[in-house]
Design brief:
With 360 residues, the protein is an alpha/beta fold. It is 35% helix and 16% strand. The strands form four sheets. It has a seven-stranded mixed sheet. A three-stranded antiparallel sheet has the order 11-12-14. The longest helix is centred in the last third of the chain and has 22 residues. The structure holds pyridoxal-5'-phosphate.
Length: 360
């Protein structure tokens, strides 16, 4: 078996220990004589998997009692509609547009009410996070929306925006569980798990209880109401059962590592190795303003398209895969999520240094 170093932005690398454990339980989970994929979601064994996953996530993130944890489907993209349908009570919301995913969320919300762009970094191809300390927040805004880590552009909010007392909603798909978080500062945190937690098909939404009501926009389907899923404990219909099971294993893996503080320390180390190299390289350079750099997604370029392509090809041949950048940024992107080991980043940097020597 030859595992590569997989720098995919998502679906992405998972902890090897989790995959090994899941493989061992594939045919017989805990003496049930069946695998988790084959199990009724109403069974005792599955209820235990779900309850344990939620409890472990709550303890990892320190989620306060007055927040619900929902395991949903439809990808992060479905939340672009669910958020306004459920939370836009005054039909007004303020969006901070820092990239593709924030823009999509804003466009979707515009179908349901007045969605204002109160800040944007489009002027410099989303290469930075705008100053959000004193924004023109709307008086009657139901919430302020951010995409906390911008997967494509490689930027991250280092401090949360001043929402002037309004509820904050954050898409954390690509930085979920990468560092400690004060959940009480948000009204809602959500993310697709396929970036940093588990297999595609699961969305985790953490929502303050008072926001989960029957007062939703007219025509909101049953399946798109948070209340439906909150009342049913994420078992209104068949949940993405196997995906949740893997998420649960990743939560345990994080606990064994020492929790989110320990994870953050590792992530900072990894990112520093790569950014330090980029800052000193004469061939490669990062594309993001240093103050806004993501710990998870690191875009970089050589400034020459042919050289970029040559590098991506050579890297792949050497076992460093999925380094091609998003077409909107070009160049390369190394996604160095939780499950990417430090050795993977060190080996990549060694490879880049050797490539630089040969190609300058
Ligand atoms: C990948 C991604 C999305 C889209 O996720 P889907 O699950 O494919 O809908 C949304 N937001 C962010 C920040 C992402 O990284």
């Amino acid at each position: 078996m030859a595992r590569v170093y997989n720098f995919s932005a998502g679906p992405a690398v998972l902890p090897e220990a989790v995959l090994t454990e899941a493989a061992a339980e594939m045919l017989d989970y805990g003496g049930t004589g069946m695998g988790v994929m084959e199990m009724s979601h109403r069974s005792k064994a599955y209820q235990n998997i779900l309850d344990t996953a939620e409890a472990d996530l709550r303890s990892l993130m320190g989620i306060p009692e007055n927040y619900k944890v929902l395991f949903l489907q439809g990808g992060a993209s479905q939340q672009f509609a669910m958020v306004p349908m459920n939370l836009m009570k005054n039909k007004v919301a303020d969006y901070i547009v820092t990239g593709v995913w924030a823009k999509k969320a804003w466009q979707e919300a515009s179908m349901y009410g007045q969605a204002n762009v109160v800040a944007s970094s489009a002027d410099r191809n989303f290469s930075y996070i705008p100053d959000c300390s004193d924004l023109p927040i709307s008086e009657n805004a139901d919430y302020v929306y951010i995409c906390e880590n911008n997967t494509i552009y490689g930027t991250k909010f280092k401090s949360l925006p001043n929402t002037k007392g309004k509820d904050l909603v954050a898409d954390v798909s690509s930085c979920f569980l990468s560092e400690p978080v004060d959940v009480s500062k948000y009204a809602m945190i959500y993310g697709g798990v396929q970036k940093n937690i588990g297999p595609a098909g699961v969305v985790i939404a953490i929502i303050r209880e008072d926001l989960i009501t029957e007062d939703v926009l007219p025509g909101t389907p049953t399946m798109l109401r948070y209340k439906t899923h909150a009342d049913a404990g994420s078992l209104y219909n068949t949940p993405p059962a196997y995906g949740i099971y893997i998420c649960g294993k990743v939560f345990k893996w994080l606990q064994q590592l020492g929790g989110l503080e320990a994870m953050q320390a590792v992530n900072e180390k990894k990112a520093a190795i790569l950014y330090d190299f980029l800052d000193n390289s004469k061939l490669f350079q990062g594309t993001v303003e240093p103050a806004s750099r993501s710990l998870m997604n690191v875009p970089f370029i050589t400034g020459d398209k042919d050289m970029d392509a040559k590098f991506v090809k050579a890297a792949e041949a050497a076992g460093f895969v999925n380094l091609k950048g998003h077409r909107l940024v070009g160049g390369m992107r190394a996604s160095i999520y939780n499950a990417m080991p430090i050795e993977g980043v060190s080996a990549l940097v060694d490879f880049m240094a050797a490539f630089e020597k040969e190609n300058r």
